[in-house]
Structure formats: structure tokens, C-alpha cells
């Protein structure tokens, strides 16, 4: 047992009341027991001393004191570990729901850490919870007062685009583009924003720039964008080569959701009035990629097909499935849920089911009180 100053002067170190000769003690830089593993402590002290849970450290004259760990150091170490975990989840395609509690806990402990809000938003976006991710990104922008964080601006613009907040998406993406104009992902996102807001010439310029300026990023998104621009102009024959290239490149690149581009081709075929060809491709796509079946784009296409065949009730039932609990709708944004209820109301009205249509309209009003589709749907409910 430790006898106090006598043992220390005799060249021994005291650990939890147990003296250890100097030749067996840790080096001066490792003497603080927080740096020792449990196995090392057991070897040096014996199980009884470790179990006591108290470690007394005596420093010798001339020894440097242990480095003090500041809260900022701790926050940095935690963030490095979380970022490594995030990278591992991406590389191994793990379920990000398991990383979410740690990301949320970090922002609670360090509410003013920009990196914490960014990482939390990245995890939420991986889970397609864009409505939850966006406030974290806005908070990060508030904390990052200089406004020169390229990755943060790109993430915020991308998230806003997913939510359909096109003005905010454009603002943040343009700011990111000003910082790094050679980033093709930003150029492609801007092309999508321009297309969604009806600025076809600007969208076309963005997609062409992405194709001409880059030889490393797979071009399927740019080709798909050009196909949609042609279709929006009614140039369906010109759209076909672009969308076919997008599908081919997506498959060759190993794109997990190559079916997205096949569904875009289905929509182009329907728009062109080529219903049989579109139906055939829709059926084969659902067979090859069952995960596509209950996505919103695929449901829209099936509903259009049912409507074309004079079966509005079948179209309504497809949307009913999305909100029935049979399908996991956790990843739908509020904007997408609003779209589901608007379509549900439309098809129930087409089928003459005014009661069900009224329920869908009420839910749409609850989700988005100012939704522009409400006026026409309510007029149809009144028989107007």
C-alpha cells in the first residue's frame, strides 16, 4: 500500500493506493490513467484497484504535467469520429438511421458547432428527411457568418431543391457556384432549378456546360435533363436519344437507381401519346426494379395510364396505397404528401367519389394551407 511521501521519494508511483516501482510505471507522457486501456490498468494494478474506480496520480519533480484537454479539443475529436463513421456508412451502404442518434447528440452538446449541424443534415438527407435537414443547414449558415463555406451552400441549395423551395435553392446554389464554378454537381443542380422554374434556355445551357466541361462525372443526369427540356418543348423525337443515353450511362456506371431514367422515358412516351410503348416500359421497369413501384414518380405514371384507360378509381387506389401504411412513407416530404393528396382528390373526383375527394382536399389544406391547387379542387367539389 502507498505510504505517502516516503514511497514517492523512494522512486515509486501511487495508483489508487497501490505502489508501483518506477521501472514498471508508464512513461511520464502516459502517466495520466485516462490514456491507459482497461487491460493495461489491470496488468499494473490488479482487478481490485481498477474496480475501485479512483486513480491517484503522483508526479515526480521535473516531470511535465499532463496536457489539459479543453472542451474544444473534445468537440473536435468527437466530430472527427463522427465524420469517420459517416464515411464508413457511405462506403458500406449501412442504414443511416443508426447514426442519427449520435449526430443529434453531438449538436445538443455543441449547439454552436457548424460541423455538427452540417453532419446532422447530411445524415437526415441520406434518410431523405429533407424537411428536418433544412433547419440544421440554415442554422449552420447563421453560425458560418462569412458565407464562404462551399459544401454548406451546396448542401443547402440541394436540400431546398428537394423540398421544392426553388428560390432558396437557386440563391444558395448560385453562391456555391460563385465560389467554385468548376463543380459539376452544382451546375447540374442549377440546371434542375432552372428547368423546374420554366427557364428552359438557362437549364439547357447548364446541362450543356456540364457535358462539355467535365470528363469524370458520369453524364447521365445532364443527358436526362436535356431530354426533359426537349419533351417540355414538345420535341419528343429529339428527346429519345438523350434519354436513351442517360439510361445507358446510368447502367454502365452502376447507378443503383437507373430505373429513375427509365421512368423519365415512360413519361416522355406518354406525353408523346405513345401509350403502348410507355406501358410496356413501365411494366418491365417495375419488374426489374420492384423498389421503384411505390415511389411517387412511378405512382404518377400508373395513375396516368389508368386514367388513359378510363379507370380513375384504380388511379385513386394507387395513391391510397401510399398513405395507407402498407408502404413506408417516412421519406416523403410535406410537399410530396401534399402532391399525393392533391392527386388523390383529383382522381376521386374523376371517379365521382366526392366524399373521399373532400377528405383528401381537407388533408391537403391541413398540410399546405395556401396550396395553389386548393382553389380548383374546391371549385370542383362544389360542382363549379
Distance between the termini: 94 Å
CATH topology name of the domain at 294-384, in short, is: Serine Threonine Protein Phosphatase 5, Tetratricopeptide repeat
Cα radius of gyration in angstroms:
30 Å
Main sheet: strands, sense, barrel:
2 strands, antiparallel
**CATH architect. name of the domain at 294-384:** Alpha Horseshoe
Order of helices and strands: HEEHHHHHHHHHHHHHHHHHHH
* Number of E strands: 2
The strand line-up of the biggest sheet is: 1-2
Percentage of residues in strands: under 5%
Low-confidence stretches: 1-63
What is the fold's blueprint, element by element?
Layout lengths: L4 H5 L2 E4 L2 E4 L16 H8 L1 H5 L19 H22 L7 H10 L4 H13 L3 H14 L6 H13 L3 H14 L4 H13 L3 H14 L6 H13 L3 H17 L6 H13 L3 H14 L7 H13 L3 H12 L10 H17 L3 H14 L5 H9 L3
Antiparallel strand pairs: 1-2
Helix pairs in contact: 4-6, 5-6, 6-7, 7-8, 8-9, 8-10, 9-10, 10-11, 10-12, 11-12, 12-13, 12-14, 13-14, 14-15, 14-16, 16-17, 16-18, 17-18, 18-19, 18-20, 19-20
Give a summary of the structure in a few sentences.
With 384 residues, the protein is mostly helical.
Amino acid at each position: 500500500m502507498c505510504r505517502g511521501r516516503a514511497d514517492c521519494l523512494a522512486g515509486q508511483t501511487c495508483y489508487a493506493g497501490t505502489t508501483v516501482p518506477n521501472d514498471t510505471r508508464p512513461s511520464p507522457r502516459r502517466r495520466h490513467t485516462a490514456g491507459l486501456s482497461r487491460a493495461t490498468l489491470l496488468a499494473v494494478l490488479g482487478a481490485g484497484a481498477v474496480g475501485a474506480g479512483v486513480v491517484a496520480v503522483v508526479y515526480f519533480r521535473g516531470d511535465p504535467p499532463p496536457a489539459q484537454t479543453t472542451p474544444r479539443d473534445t468537440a473536435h475529436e468527437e466530430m472527427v469520429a463522427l465524420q469517420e463513421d459517416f464515411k464508413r456508412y457511405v462506403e458500406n451502404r449501412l442504414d443511416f438511421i443508426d447514426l442519427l442518434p449520435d449526430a443529434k447528440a453531438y449538436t445538443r452538446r455543441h449547439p454552436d458547432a457548424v460541423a455538427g449541424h452540417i453532419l446532422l443534415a447530411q445524415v437526415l438527407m441520406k434518410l431523405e428527411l429533407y424537411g428536418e435537414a433544412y433547419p440544421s443547414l440554415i442554422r449552420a449558415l447563421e453560425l458560418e457568418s462569412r458565407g464562404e463555406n462551399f459544401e454548406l451552400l451546396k448542401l443547402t441549395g440541394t436540400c431546398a431543391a428537394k423540398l421544392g423551395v426553388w428560390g432558396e435553392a437557386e440563391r444558395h446554389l448560385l453562391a456555391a457556384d460563385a465560389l467554385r464554378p468548376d463543380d459539376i454537381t452544382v451546375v447540374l443542380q442549377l440546371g434542375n432549378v432552372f428547368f423546374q422554374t420554366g427557364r428552359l434556355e438557362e437549364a439547357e445551357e447548364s446541362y450543356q456546360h456540364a457535358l462539355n466541361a467535365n470528363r469524370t462525372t458520369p453524364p447521365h443526369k445532364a443527358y436526362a435533363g436535356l431530354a426533359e427540356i426537349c419533351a417540355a418543348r414538345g420535341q419528343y423525337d429529339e428527346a429519345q436519344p438523350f434519354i436513351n443515353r442517360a439510361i445507358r450511362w446510368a447502367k454502365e456506371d452502376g447507378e443503383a437507381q437507373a430505373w429513375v431514367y427509365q421512368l423519365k422515358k415512360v413519361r416522355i412516351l406518354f406525353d408523346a401519346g405513345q401509350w403502348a410503348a410507355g406501358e410496356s416500359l413501365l411494366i418491365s421497369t417495375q419488374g426489374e426494379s420492384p423498389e421503384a413501384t411505390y415511389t411517387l414518380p412511378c405512382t404518377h405514371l400508373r395513375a396516368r395510364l389508368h386514367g388513359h384507360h378510363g379507370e380513375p378509381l384504380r388511379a385513386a387506389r394507387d395513391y391510397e396505397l401510399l398513405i395507407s401504411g402498407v408502404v413506408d412513407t417516412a421519406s416523403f416530404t410535406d410537399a410530396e404528401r401534399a402532391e399525393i393528396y392533391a392527386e388523390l382528390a383529383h382522381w376521386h373526383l374523376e371517379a365521382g367519389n366526392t366524399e373521399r375527394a373532400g377528405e383528401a382536399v381537407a388533408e391537403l389544406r391541413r398540410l399546405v394551407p395556401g396550396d395553389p391547387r386548393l382553389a380548383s379542387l374546391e371549385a370542383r367539389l362544389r360542382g363549379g
